[in-house]
Amino acid sequence: MEPNTKESKKPDLMVESEEEFRPWSNLPDDILRQLIEKLYPVDRVRFCAVCRNWRVPIKGIQSVDKFPWLMTYLQFILYDEHTFEYTLADPVYRKSYTVREKSERERFYHVHASKFGWLLLRDEQRSEETTTCFLLFTPFDKKFIELPELPSSGYDLGVATFSSSPACSDCTVVAIGGKSYVGEENYIVISTYRSRDETWSSKKFCGQIFEPVKDVAYSRGKVYCSISYGLVLGAYDVADKTWNLLVHLRHDGFGDVLLDSYRITNHLIESDGEILLAIHPNERDWRVYGFDISKATWVVKQSLGNRALFLGATSLSLAAASGGDTRDIADMIYYHELDKSVGFSLTKSSSVREMRERERAQMAIVEYDEDDGVMNGDDETDYDHGSLNQGGGNEDEKQLFGWCASGVMNRIWIQPPY
C-alpha cells in the first residue's frame, strides 16, 4: 500500500486584531488623571460629578494655570437670623458664585492668611481679653477646623499665618503679638500650633523691638517678620524656637521711600523660596525688594521675572507659565483699590521712575506758554495696569479682576484647592 503523499490542507492561521472596548464609565485611572490635569478647578469638580467611577483622588494632580480667586465677603443681620455672605470670583471663566450661610449667632472674623484654598480666621466674637480663638475655613467646601484657644493675656495679637494645607500632618499655625509701647517693657510673643498637638506653644522674647510686627511670611520652617515697614526683619525658627534679627536699618537702602512711613503699605511675601518685601509708598507706585540672606540686606527688584504678586489682607505669589494663560500676568502686581482690584506693571513703572530721576538730575527743562502764562512740565505718565484683554468693554472690564468690581470692600485673594 502506497503511502498517501497528498499533503493535507492546513487551516489558515489568521489572527484577528482584538481591540479592548471599555465603557466610558470604566476608564483607567491614568487616563482619568491625564484628563483632569488639563481642567481648571471648577471643571475638575464638574468632571468628577458626571460619573461616580471618575471620582479619582484629585490631590497631587498637577494643576493648570492656577489663578487666585477673588473672595469678597459681607456680614449682615437678616431679620432675626444672622447671615454670613461671601462671593467667589473665578478669573478664568469670569463667573462669580455667592454663598449665604445662616448662623445662630453673630460671627465677626478677621482674615489673617490664605493658602491652599484655606483661610486662617480669628473669631472676634469668641475671642476675649485673655484668649484668642482661631479657625481654618475653606469657602470651597465650607469646612471649618476650630483650633484650641490661645492664651493671650496682657498683650496685643497682631498677625498670624500657617505653613501648609491643614490636611498635612506637619501643618503649623503661627500667631505673633506683643507689647511695643514707649516707656514700658517691650517684648514679642510667638505662638505655634501643630495639628497633632493639643495646645499652643508660646515663646517670649524681650527688649529687641519697639514697634509691632506688620506682616509675616512662612518659608522653609522659618517665620519672617516685617517690623517698622521692613527696616527691621526678624526670623523665628519653628523647630529650634529661636528668634533673630536679620536686618536692622535706618532708611538705608530705601532712599526716600520710607520718609513718610506712617502713610505707606507694605507686604511680606514668600515667593518660590525667596522673601520679598513689596512697598506701596504712594497711590501710583510699588517698590519690591528681595532679601539677600548672605549679605543680610534688601536688594531692589527691577523685575519679578515670570512671577506675579497678589497683595492685600492675604498675599500670594504665582509663577506664570510660559505657554499658559498666566503668561500675560508675568511681572505684574495685583492689589485691591477701594471697591475693585487692579494690576500694576513693575518693569514699566521702574523704567518710568528711572526716566524721571534722570530728568530731575539733569534739571529738566520747563517750558513757558506765552499765551496763557502756564508753566508746562512733563505730563504724568500712567503706569500700565495690564490685563488679559478678554474681549471688549471699558478698561475696568478688561482688567483681570476688573469685571468683578463691587461695592464690597472686604476683598481677599484665595487659591483654589485643586
UniProtKB/TrEMBL annotation:
Q: Which PROSITE patterns match?
A: FBOX (PS50181)
Which residues does the UniProt record annotate as the domain F-box?
21-67
Q: Spell out the InterPro entries in the cross-references.
A: F-box-like_dom_sf, F-box_dom, Gal_Oxase/kelch_b-propeller, KIB1-4_b-propeller
Residue segments, region Disordered? 375-394
Origin: domain of life: Eukaryota
Please name the CDD domains in this protein's record.
Answer: F-box_SF
Q: Which Pfam families match?
A: Beta-prop_KIB1-4 (PF03478), F-box (PF00646)
Q: What is this protein called?
A: F-box domain-containing protein
What organism does the record attribute this protein to? Escallonia herrerae
